Amino acid sequence: MDANTYSEIIIREIGQVLGQVNTTALEELATAVRAANRVFVAGAGRSGLMAKAFAMRLMHMGFTVYVVGETVTPSLAAGDLLLLASGSGETGSLVTMADKCKKLQAKLAVLTASPGSTIGRSADIVVQVPAVTKEAADIRSITAQPMGSLFEQSILLLMDAIIVRLMELQEKTSTTMFSRHANLE
């Protein structure tokens, strides 16, 4: 097969995953972002990179948002939202963050393929992303892609969909958001 054929397969796989996501959970997450005093995002590896992309767009919209682990990230508090991206819902560092979040009485949301996981069970909002993760025993029978690519691509698109929904709710446009775009590049 050529690269174009693989692109078509990938697009089809992503479409199948996105078509199964509960839209009520997405709307609940958008509502929680709007209601939060501040939004904190975290994920490990490539899932973390997708979460960072979401944080950037939230910043462009004027939300107060932080990426957990950065040197300028303040402490989490009640009234804040912590959004975790974890396919397995069992990543050790993220489980620790989820536990701390609950102790601090902040709201916890997760994008995960495993709603019954440790993080999924403790989250206030669970967006189940029914994509195979890198832990799957027979991954090649489910996706043409390596490891957690399907999950990571799907969460990026879901978070972009949340951004578009927030733009609609807050009457923002790309033009108004661009005023917050980095200008020291």
Number of strands: 5
**CATH architectural name:** 3-Layer(aba) Sandwich
- The overall pLDDT average reads 90
CATH topology call: Rossmann fold
CATH class annotation = Alpha Beta
Helix content: 40-55%
CATH superfamily: Glucose-6-phosphate isomerase like protein, domain 1
> Kindly, what is the distance between the CA atoms of the first and last residues, rounded to a whole number of angstroms?
39 Å
Report the sheet-strand fraction: 5-15%
Strand order in the largest sheet: 2-1-3-4-5
Topology pattern, helix = H, strand = E: HHEHEEHEHEHH
Protein name: 6-phospho-3-hexuloisomerase
Organism: Propionispora vibrioides
InterPro entries: PHI/rmpB, SIS_dom, SIS_dom_sf
Family: Belongs to the SIS family. PHI subfamily.
Would you kindly provide a written description of the structure presented here, covering whatever features stand out?
The chain is of the alpha/beta class and 185 residues long. The protein has one domain: 3-Layer(aba) Sandwich (Rossmann fold), CATH 3.40.50.10490. Helices cover 49% and strands 12% of the residues. Strands 2-1-3-4-5 form a five-stranded parallel beta sheet, with helices on both faces. Helix 1 crosses helix 6, helix 2 packs across helix 6 and helix 3 packs parallel to helix 6. The relative contact order is 0.18. This is 6-phospho-3-hexuloisomerase. InterPro entries: PHI/rmpB, SIS_dom, SIS_dom_sf.
